[in-house]
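Board notes (copied after class):
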Amino acid sequence: MAIQRGNSSGDLLQITKERAIRRAKRFKKILEQHQLWINEEQFEARFGEEVARKQIVLQRRAVSKYRDASDNKRFSYQEDIDRAREGNEASLCRIIKWDKSWLYVPWVKDRILEASDSGRHSFLSKVGAAISGKSGQTKAIGSKKLRDEQFDEVLPFIEAAILCWIAERPHEDPERIKRTIANECMAALEDYWDQQPEEQIPPLARDRDYFRKYLKRSGVI
């Protein structure tokens, strides 16, 4: 089977969006636990706009990080995606290990289900190891630059939530709304890091002051 060139870009955009959607659902749930309700339809529209605006930047960053950190330096992210599409098991397992969001991509799910139906236990064991392996997307972050990169992935949710609340509450102080949403999103990040092993928690993980400075630099608050 020939490699289907030109698919890697679309796949990467889908992965970026899928990761953002899953993170947004987690943060939205935390806001609702604090009685901060957001209109579902309005939020999805706003969030889609914010993700689309930042998708290309996040995609390019993922490609660069994969090149620097992948356990196989022979192939770029796009090349491994193309090889995985062709049927290369090693490439498929590498991209799954790098980012578990690949498990949501239809052709990846089909490949795993087909292997299960045909009893290809060796391949399924490799996929299982990739799933349980430490993801390249979630490695501990120590520097401010890398910390900002993590915040960049949260930013579309924060901006969409703020825009929705301001639209739904025209008589409330917009600045108060911004602070409320920002604080709750920081609480969501703290909840995430509380679930990680201590050695993987970066120095700035719980630094609320740094988070506020980042939001100010980004023009959010």
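Comment from the instructor: The two ends are 52 Å apart (CA to CA). The chain has a mean pLDDT of 77.
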